[in-house]
Amino acid sequence: MALLPILHFPDPRLQKVAAPIEHVDDDVRRLAADMAETMYAAPGIGLAATQVDVHRRLIVIDISETHDQLITLINPRLLGQSPDIQECEEGCLSVPGIFDSVERPAEVEVEALGLDGKSFRIKADGLLAVCIQHEMDHLEGIVFVDHLSRLKRNRIVNKLRKQQQKVP
Ligand code: NI
Hints:
The protein has 3 helices and 7 strands.
């Protein structure tokens, strides 16, 4: 197991679209384990492979306080979403220190492969629905601040660029 470096917005590599995983093999399972370790250490409640500069369709999520409800989604595919919208304050390990409200469908149903390579479905609402959609966005090269107004997004870009310039 290893901690993986996380890309920080506005790194252009966060805009890459991830490719499907063809075989759920030991390399994929090792990556998933490293991503989970990285997420827990941060600490965060979700991490997409894109954020660790691996452009393959893999997500880890654990919204529990006890860190024992790990969900791994490989090649997640949206099956359906509710018409009703929920607004939630989001943050992201790739956008440190920034939190803002994003509107998303309140419920989603997703099909994915698990670490055993078998397909499963998950229906989610509340925070889990937010997290799944946020992480699936990463696989499309979308960061949550891309959902904000251009003005807000530009302010965030400028703030983070300044912060990153200070780092030696
Ligand atoms: Ni994120």
